[in-house]
Design goal:
By secondary structure, the protein is of the alpha+beta class. The protein has 3 helices and 6 strands.
Length: about 120
């Protein structure tokens, strides 16, 4: 079964990191990603640009409305994702718990709907 592991973090902490701290986090993510690729769980994954680059789209009464920024203001922002293949929810949770940001932010684990 496929699961989407949504990585939520406090975006301002990343902005305030030193270049050395950012490089250390990047290396940790690289190691994690390589481990799930080698284990066969990895399907896809990417980081996202900051919420300042986001555009929210709504259609109301046939008109397309856009707003700069994310839909909702929260303490944690969606910063990236991994799409993984896992035999069950427990395995997906185990993979999510190893994502570096799980120590400070949160990882939402969602099963992917497969349409046939």
């Amino acid at each position: 079964m496929q699961y989407l592991l949504l990585i939520y973090r406090n975006e301002s902490k990343l902005v305030n990191m030193s270049p050395a701290e950012r490089q250390a986090v990047s290396a940790e993510y690289g190691t994690y990603t390589q481990s799930i690729v080698q284990s066969g769980h990895f399907k896809a994954g990417d980081g996202l640009q900051p919420t300042t680059t986001a555009t929210t789209v709504r259609v109301r009464e046939g008109k397309t409305l856009t707003t700069d920024g994310p839909f909702a203001e929260t303490r944690e922002q969606l910063g990236g994702y991994y799409l993984v293949e896992a035999k069950d929810l427990d395995t997906a949770i185990s993979l999510a718990a190893r994502i570096p940001e799980a120590r400070e932010g949160s990882i939402e684990v969602r099963p992917v709907m497969i349409y046939k």
